[in-house]
Design brief:
The protein is α/β, with parallel strands linked by helices. The protein is built from 23 helices and 19 strands. It folds into two domains: 6-230, Cobalamin-binding domain (Rossmann fold), CATH 3.40.50.280; 237-507 and 543-603, pyruvate-formate lyase- activating enzyme (Alpha-Beta Horseshoe). The longest helix has 22 residues, at 415-436.
Length: 622
């Protein structure tokens, strides 16, 4: 073990990122199995990630198991580590990563993958799995991007597909027994046993063959592996232990508040949304359980805000009584309640008004597209009338500013659809004038460049080129030269590299390696990203970027990610792709009947629904 000296801390910004010892952190010295939960971004971002808070709590409450934390060192700290021949170490016991039994990375964002390679090297671990010996850590990954972890296949030992609460404990207990037995069979001996655990994917047990045109032809397995690894799922969130004493940082982090997961999954079926497919089905925590968790979290952390966290928090079945009871209970403590996402309806504005009674906050809506034609194509299920009704309710209740999220570069999009965004913004501003008799409504428009992701209805779509995305951005920018309107848009080049990795096969691993060797770090940060570096990395790997990004996929093509499945059938996604072309809607299966996505049947899931008794106010809006 090694503590950072004062002379090292004096050379870096934000030393609190590296010293550990925060309130409620857990230090366990003598255990049988130790995992470093590794977040491939800076401390402030990683400490905001709820998934690691859950796993940290679950592992550390187990006897003889320990979970510690490590985050990507900023460039100043990396320089110190390299200059002084130090190692990247965990915050809890200051162990180098190579001294742990597992290093577990979460795959949240494709542009953080070069940080994974960098953290492995700084931690003293061979970059490629084939170069690790029996005494070196197993590198394990999970998270939303794990459903296509093929670009990382040669760097990782195994992956948890789906919910990790139970699977991680099972893997660590398996390792404990393997270690006690003398590590019989070496690394392969452990991996063969791990591969038998449901939801565990061992990339080295899958051999990928390619056609002459570069597409995947065959996927062969060894050691008796199933052809497809389906995700693990926690069907009843009420029985999963949720952390009520999370680590409280010394310094401010991105989401510096209580994060209370109210439900998991989404069934709305937006055709662009990867998360809406991979986290299916919807599983809710009961109202009583959430209130009890809220009480404990407020007591143990000292935070003054509770964020009701989920993919679509306004879809929680008992949202009205949950918000009302929490506000009433914590009003005297000046603890506010926030909703990270709102539906486009007046009901949500009514809830937001109650939330606002404690602390004033802005309103954000996500129409996603400007025209009704495009909203039908993406299966958004809302109309311009819905949005105007919602903002009318907002303006009547005192709001004078809103933020609107859109995407550009969607399938079948025309310039008229782009310009419709500006027209919608003008309608919102005019509605403010109608309600208040005054001008001055402030509208912030945020437009991201669409990235077609695996396991969505748009996975066959060829992404717009950089030039086309930029042209559309300028078209919209000119159209939004309106008083009191702020336009924000994302860099087109980073979106293309995101698509390159998200839609990539194992050959993209060489691209990631080339980019990292050329100095790629923190590619999600605009001041660190270099498109030229990535272009060169693709060229050095003898690959074609357009093959992965802008190429329209054949309907019969085998995708690189099909052997790690969230349970959504390809047939369902293909039917949604065809319905998109016809501008046909698919209604939410929670509000109507099963739409045949295949998740419940394929995974054999019986979902425990604590939200069957919905409030009358909410039922009226479904």
């Amino acid at each position: 073990m090694e503590n950072l000296s004062i002379d090292v801390l004096n050379k870096i910004e934000h030393p609190s990122r590296y010293i550990g010892g925060e309130f409620a952190s857990i230090v366990k010295q003598n255990v049988n199995v130790r995992i470093a939960l590794a977040f491939p971004d800076v401390y402030e971002v990683g400490m905001s990630y709820l998934g690691f808070k859950i796993l940290y709590h679950l592992v550390n409450k187990e006897e003889n198991l320990a979970a510690e934390r490590v985050y990507a060192p900023w460039t100043d700290m990396e320089q110190v580590i390299r200059e002084k021949d130090l190692f990247l170490r965990t915050l809890e016991t200051k162990r180098a990563l190579y001294e742990c039994d597992f290093v577990g990375f979460t795959l949240q964002y494709e542009l953080s993958y070069t940080n994974i390679l960098n953290m492995l090297e700084l931690g003293g671990i061979p970059i490629k799995a084939k170069d690790r010996n029996c005494d070196e850590p197993f590198v394990i990954v999970g998270g939303p991007c794990v459903f296509n972890c093929e670009p990382l296949a040669e760097f990782i030992d195994l992956a948890i597909i789906g919910d990790g609460e139970d699977a991680l404990i099972e893997i660590m207990r398996l390792y404990e027994n393997w270690k006690k037995a003398g590590k019989i069979g070496g690394r392969n001996g452990f991996l063969k046993q791990a591969a038998k655990i449901k939801g565990i994917y061992v990339p080295s047990y899958f051999d990928i063959q390619y056609n002459e045109d570069g597409t995947v032809s065959e996927v062969e397995t060894i050691n008796g592996q199933a052809k497809t690894i389906y995700k693990r799922i926690v069907s009843d969130l009420n029985v999963v232990d949720f952390p009520v004493s999370p680590v409280v940082p010394f310094a401010a982090i991105v989401h510096d508040r209580i994060m209370l997961e109210i439900f998991r999954g989404c069934s709305r079926g937006c055709r662009f949304c990867n998360a809406g497919m991979i986290y299916r089905p919807v599983r809710e925590r009961s109202l009583e359980k959430l209130l009890e968790l809220g009480r404990q979290l407020v007591k143990n952390t000292g935070y003054n805000e509770i964020s009701l966290f989920s993919l679509s928090s306004a879809d929680y079945s008992n949202l009205v009584p949950l918000v009302h009871n929490m506000i009433e209970e914590f009003r005297d403590k000046r603890v506010s309640v926030s909703l990270p996402s709102l539906r486009i309806d007046s009901f949500c504005v009514a809830v937001a008004k109650e939330v606002n009674a404690v602390r004033k906050s802005g309103l954000t809506f996500a129409p996603e597209a400007g025209s009704q034609r495009m909203r039908d194509i993406i299966n958004k299920g809302v109309t311009e009338a819905d949005l105007l009704k919602a903002v009318t309710a907002a303006f009547e209740n005192g709001w004078s500013a809103v933020k609107l999220y859109f995407m550009i570069g969607l399938p079948f999009e025309t310039d008229e659809d782009i310009l419709a965004i500006a027209n919608l913004v003008k309608s919102v501003q005019y509605k403010y004038y109608e309600v208040t008799g005054k001008h001055g409504c402030r509208v912030t428009v945020s437009a991201s460049a669409f990235v077609p992701k695996p396991y969505t209805a748009f996975q066959w779509f060829g992404q717009n080129s950089i030039e086309e995305i930029q042209r559309k951005q300028m078209l919209l920018k000119d159209a939004l030269k309106i008083k009191n309107v702020v336009f924000q848009y994302h860099d087109a080049q980073t979106s293309v590299i995101e698509a390159l990795i998200a839609r990539g096969d194992r050959r993209i691993g060489q691209v990631i390696y080339n980019a990292w060797k050329a100095g790629a770090r923190f590619d999600g940060w605009s001041d660190h990203f270099s498109f030229d570096r990535w272009q060169q990395a693709v060229q050095d790997a003898d690959l074609n970027m357009d093959f992965y990004t802008s190429r329209q996929r054949d309907l019969n093509e085998r995708f690189p990610w099909e052997h790690t499945s969230p349970g959504v059938s390809k047939e369902f996604l293909l039917s949604e792709w065809r319905k998109a072309q016809k501008q046909q809607l698919t209604k939410d299966c929670r509000r109507t009947v099963c739409k045949g996505c295949g998740v419940c049947q394929m995974l054999g899931v019986k979902v425990v629904d604590y939200g069957e008794k919905k409030s009358e106010n909410q039922n009226a809006n479904y």
